[in-house]
């Protein structure tokens, strides 16, 4: 049986494939990098890292995989990074394969294209709203507010029920200790407060002050605060970055969905997280509106 022996261009994992995989894209079993399989005449380790489009779909590796051997030498990834990549593979997260040449900016190929924050909501949590001609804000959607209030209401209900049972107004049912009911109410109440506060936190782009901020404090003295990382100068924003992440819900009936992250790319290649939610159409529309407001481009990898 003719075989092609190659090494993953990202992590160096050695893989042997049947010859009919030449010219097709595959996914590395170790780090999930998608790359092109070279022809039989190419030297070992000649995997091609670049893929023409981020939409390219890798072939079904497990059925045609002949062997996968540990890589040796300096190309091997550190132990910690390897563990992180395997955990990403288990949760559905993988490094994005993005054709950065489409953006016409060398900075695009130098930045990271993985999500800044793991996970995300499956519904729209924020909407961009214009507040005058010089200011736009991301505000919590009705669905996000109701979701937070659901936790608050459930927690308050459990605490009220505990009070009524303790006072003898309502007869106790079941054999479980009352402290469980109280603690459960406190947990749900705390989660609701945390969610509501996070959803309502100001996310502001203000041309009058010249800053972007994602905090409750109004930048009356923005310059000192900017040094601490609370504020970002608008003039430093190079582009709007959009990336996606496949997430997996918990519970008895788990399902997968995509969450979309909107980030700011600064002139030094660093990124700032803005919003992250599951409504692709909404986040694309808001990204275009925000880009027009700032006078920058959208780098869309969704």
Describe the structure.
This protein has 302 residues and is an alpha+beta fold. The chain folds into 3 domains: 3-91, no CATH class; 100-133 and 203-300, no CATH class; 143-199. Helix content is 28%, strand content 25%.
Main attributes?
alpha+beta; flat; 5-stranded antiparallel sheet; 25% strand; 14 strands; 3 domains; 4-stranded mixed sheet; 302 residues
Provide a compact summary of the structure:
With 302 residues, the protein is α+β, with helices and mostly antiparallel strands.
How far the N terminus sits from the C terminus, by CA atoms, comes to 39 Å
The low-confidence parts are 44-78, 89-95
Helix content: 25-40%
Tally of domains: 3
Question: For the residues shown, what is the average pLDDT?
Answer: 77
From the alpha carbons, calculate the radius of gyration and give it in angstroms.
Answer: 25 Å
Q: Structural class, from secondary structure content?
A: alpha+beta
Overall 3D shape: flat
Q: Which percent band covers the strand fraction?
A: 25-35%
Q: Total strand count, please?
A: 14
Number of helices: 6
Largest sheet: 5 strands, antiparallel
For the largest sheet, list the strands in their spatial order. 6-7-8-9-10
Order of helices and strands: EEEEHEHEEHHEEHEEEEHE
Task: Give a topology summary.
Layout: E1 3-7, E2 14-18, E3 25-27, E4 34-36, H1 61-64, E5 65-69, H2 79-91, E6 126-130, E7 135-140, H3 142-166, H4 178-200, E8 203-206, E9 211-213, H5 222-227, E10 231-233, E11 237-248, E12 256-266, E13 271-277, H6 280-294, E14 297-300
Parallel strand pairs: 11-14
Antiparallel strand pairs: 1-2, 2-5, 3-4, 6-7, 7-8, 8-9, 9-10, 11-12, 12-13
